[in-house]
Write a structure and sequence with these properties.
Elements (H helix, E strand, L loop, with lengths): L1 H11 L26 E6 L7 E4 L5 E4 L2 E5 L5 H12 L8 E7 L7 E6 L5 E4 L6 H8 L11 E7 L2 E7 L1 H7 L13 E4 L5
Parallel strand pairs: 6-10
Antiparallel strand pairs: 1-2, 1-5, 3-4, 6-7, 8-9, 8-10
């Protein structure tokens, strides 16, 4: 616990942390990837007895009628549907499978994590065009003792972890919309406590 607090203080105490880029390149956004905790509605055309709604287990697999332990995590819904068709084709001729994600958690590496002095620190599923303001709405804002303008955004870019400064206090309390920045999958927001 003390080591984590020391790391947090070291990260947010750096005066050399540049401001976060305000936008993210749309080309970096990918198709939705299934992750542990997602809920999937699997429909087998003309076979309602094989259609089922299942959660993706922590090991990333699902089990359905006729098909046990299929890896669902790490693929798109369409890719999973093709795998399911192949597996079910051992029992049915030319099955048609549709996979619909109805509950979203997503892969761990695509979740946005908020730690420190958020009202409700937690991991969030990344959504397209997500911004820091969207994240703050999801976590209920910052606490009264948060040093919002010393918030650090940690982002993986080109195989390196980079740190950026985010002015949460200015965004949330002063309405300075230019302090709002785009979020990428896997970003971590660290909101430090004020010095008293």
């Amino acid at each position: 616990m003390l080591a984590a607090a020391g790391l947090l203080a070291a990260l947010v105490g750096c005066a050399s942390v540049p401001p976060a880029p305000s936008t993210v390149d749309d080309a970096e956004i990918e198709q939705y990837i299934i992750g542990p905790g997602d809920t999937l509605n699997i429909q087998v055309w003309r076979n309602p007895e094989l259609s089922i709604s299942v959660p993706v287990r922590p090991d990333g697999q699902i089990s359905t009628p006729l098909v046990e332990d299929v890896q669902a995590s790490g693929v798109t819904p369409t890719e999973l549907a093709r795998v399911m068709e192949e597996e079910i084709s051992l029992y049915l001729r030319d099955p048609v499978v549709t996979v619909i994600v109805t509950g979203f958690a997503g892969p761990y590496d695509r979740q946005v994590r908020v730690i420190g002095q958020a009202a409700e620190p937690r991991a969030l599923q990344y959504r397209e065009d997500m911004s820091v303001m969207d994240v703050m709405i999801e976590v209920g804002g910052i606490t009264d003792i948060a040093a919002g303008n010393r918030t650090v955004l940690i982002r993986e870019e080109d195989g390196e972890r980079r740190q950026y400064r985010v002015r949460l206090h200015d965004l949330l309390n002063r309405g300075e919309i230019e302090a709002n920045v785009d979020i990428k999958p896997g970003d971590v927001l660290i909101i430090p406590e004020r010095f008293f």
